[in-house]
């Protein structure tokens, strides 16, 4: 059937609206990337440029100029990889245990986990806890406080409840213990959920900033986000005070705004590079545990 005028008008308005929303979302990211490659002198004269007339890598040379930044990238990478692995193991194992009706104290543990979503002890109690455990100035102070999320645990619990009990019983008949069932049955069938939650955990660990400010005093353990902030502050000081004691090289005297754009690109690039490999699991994983039946 040939669509009528009303249907055609609806499609035109709908596509136009979605295109406008897509442009509103995409243009700011494009602007950040373009400005990060802008020549410093051009940006100072025309800060609202769309496409730079002169391209420059000055901001990236400044960010990558110190060994401290490269070391901080390694710290952030280790933090993201190790933290994500531990978080996925803890979250899925805890959810699997809570999904089994035979677990004693299952209701108590479920309520205790739910309460952590409603009541947050705050910054000072968390700091005192980390300090009392002797985790200050260690990589574990950035992993253990953010090891899992109550919301992800509850979603995983609902996901494991939807798995037929016969699958677990068949594995036990073949000689699997509870740990064997978890590693050989539950983890393989929950790949989509683990991929989605793993991406969220990886982004959180990669962007670790506030906890590092609180718990880390050693330069060798500072993650990338903290080092970038320190470099931005240093660049702002140099621009504001040309008589500062530590002067940058002439090619590195660039506006802090351009450095910020380059910092956003550098910090976002690894996650953006990983996302396409997890995209096929992402949509399915986001629906995990959200629908019953």
Provide a short characterization of the protein structure.
The protein is mainly alpha-helical.
Q: What do you see in this structure?
A:
The protein is mainly α and 293 residues long. The chain has a single domain (68-286), classed as MetI-like (MetI-like fold, Orthogonal Bundle), CATH 1.10.3720. The protein has helices at residues 5-36, 40-45, 58-63, 67-99, 106-118, 123-132, 140-143, 150-161, 165-173, 178-189, 191-206, 210-215, 224-240, 256-286. Helix 4 packs across helix 8, helix 4 (67-99) packs antiparallel against helix 11 and helix 4 packs antiparallel against helix 13. The longest helix is centred in the first third of the chain and has 33 residues, at 67-99. The chain crosses the membrane at residues 12-38, 74-96, 108-127, 139-160, 181-206, 258-278. This is ABC transporter permease. Keywords: Cell membrane, Membrane, Transmembrane, Transmembrane helix, Transport.
Secondary structure: helix percent:
over 70%
CATH topology: MetI-like fold
Number of helices: 14
CATH superfamily: MetI-like
CATH class: Mainly Alpha
User: Quick one: biggest sheet?
Assistant: none
Give me the strand/helix succession.
HHHHHHHHHHHHHH
Proportion in β-strands: under 5%
Distance between the amino and carboxyl termini: 37 Å
For the secondary structure, the number of strands is 0
Which stretches are poorly predicted, pLDDT < 50 over at least 5 residues? Answer: 239-252, 289-293
Cα-atom radius of gyration: 25 Å
- Give the overall shape, derived from the CA principal axes: globular
Family: Belongs to the binding-protein-dependent transport system permease family.
Membrane topology: Multi-pass membrane protein
InterPro entries: MetI-like, MetI-like_sf
Protein name: ABC transporter permease
